[in-house]
From TrEMBL:
Role played: Purine salvage pathway enzyme that catalyzes the transfer of the ribosyl-5-phosphate group from 5-phospho-alpha-D-ribose 1-diphosphate (PRPP) to the N9 position of the 6-oxopurines hypoxanthine and guanine to form the corresponding ribonucleotides IMP (inosine 5'-monophosphate) and GMP (guanosine 5'-monophosphate), with the release of PPi.
Cofactor: Mg(2+)
Coiled-coil boundaries: none
Protein name (Swiss-Prot/TrEMBL): Hypoxanthine phosphoribosyltransferase
Compartments, as annotated in UniProt: Cytoplasm
SUPFAM superfamilies: PRTase-like
Keyword set, alphabetical order: Cytoplasm, Glycosyltransferase, Magnesium, Metal-binding, Nucleotide-binding, Purine salvage, Transferase
Entry's Gene Ontology cellular component terms: cytosol
The species this protein was found in: Fructilactobacillus florum 8D
Amino acid sequence: MDNDIQRVLYSEAKIQETCKRLGSQLTNVYRSKRPLVVCVLKGAVPFTADLIKRMDVYMDLDFIDVSSYHGGTKSSGTVKLLKDLDTSVAGRDVLFVDDIVDTGKTLVYLQRLLRNRGAASMKVCTLMDKPEARPSDGVKADYVGFQVPNEFLVGYGLDYQGKYRNLPYVGILKPDIYQA
Ligand code: PRP
Ligand code: MN
Ligand code: MG
C-alpha cells in the first residue's frame, strides 16, 4: 500500500498528537455531561477509536452509516442513509465524529436528519477540514484537527474504492492510481 502513496501528509505520530489535543478539549466541553458520540461510518472508524480513548468522560457510542462518495474521488452530491442510529437522541448532547468535512453535504444531511429528534446539543468533531471545497458560508465543524489542502487524500479511514482505510497515516495518492 505504501507504494501507492505519493506523499505522507499527516504521520501516525502527528495524528495521535492531534487526537490527544482534541480529546482533552472535548473532555473539558463534556465534563459534567454524558455525550452520545456518533461515529459516521465507515471513514470515521480509526479516528473515533483513537479520539474516544483521549476523552476522560462518561459517554455512549453509536454509529450511523451514510455515504456520499460511493467509492470514487468526487462527492456524488446525494447522501444516502445506509444505517440509522440505535439510540434515541432526545435530550442528548450529540457529538458527530467524522474523518473529513469536504463539500459539507454529509454534515448538512446529518444535521437535517437529527434536527427534529430533540437533541439537547449537536456538535461536530472532524480530524480534517477542507474549507476550499465549499462556499465560505457553508457548514462548519466545531472541533477540527487539521485544515487540509484541496487534494484527494487517503488513509486513516479515508478510502479510494474501499482501499487504504487501514493506513496509519494520511497521504496523497499517486495520480496514476486513479487515472488508470
Ligand atoms: C466521506 C468522508 C466523509 C464525507 C465527507 O465519506 O468519510 O464522511 O465523505 O464528504 P462531504 O463533506 O463532501 O460530504 P464517504 O461518503 O466516502 O463514505 P465512507 O466514510 O463510508 O467512505
Ligand atoms: Mn464518511
Ligand atoms: Mg469514502
